[in-house]
Design brief:
single chain; 5 helices; 4 strands; globular
Length: 128
């Protein structure tokens, strides 16, 4: 029997959730995610941080892309410049404050003119 990669990933996430390795709860505007280890994601052609973050196996919410950006500043100086083959860290065990900050930043950044995003990026990356 042949399975697609998407099916295999879905089965793995469901199995991990069933044994308590991953616990995902969706709230009104935030997502609480916990797991005991970091996970990794390999960038493919056409990916962007929002598209990666919205995958259910990652965060299930495209607005949580700043969490990936912040966790990978050693590889990314600009959240819009991904290259296929890059291996990104996906953080788990996030606090509600981290999730709220990422949501707020993503929504604010979408409204800032392009000449102001670098300053906003630095502000987000330095804030804890």
């Amino acid at each position: 029997m042949r399975y697609t990669l998407k099916t295999v990933l879905l089965i793995a996430v469901v199995a991990a959730a069933n044994v308590g390795w991953i616990h995902i709860v969706h709230a009104q505007s935030a997502t609480t995610i916990s797991a005991d280890v970091l996970t990794r994601y390999t960038v493919v052609e056409g990916d962007n941080l929002s598209r990666i973050a919205e995958q259910n196996a990652v965060y299930g919410n495209g607005y949580l892309w700043p969490l990936i950006f912040k966790a990978n500043t050693d590889k990314l100086s600009d959240p819009g410049k991904l290259e296929p083959g890059m291996v990104l860290v996906i953080l788990r065990n996030l606090s509600q404050a981290e999730i709220d900050a990422a949501l707020s930043y993503a929504k604010k950044r979408a409204q800032v003119p392009s000449d102001g995003v670098k300053e906003l990026d630095l502000e987000y990356l330095q804030g804890d």
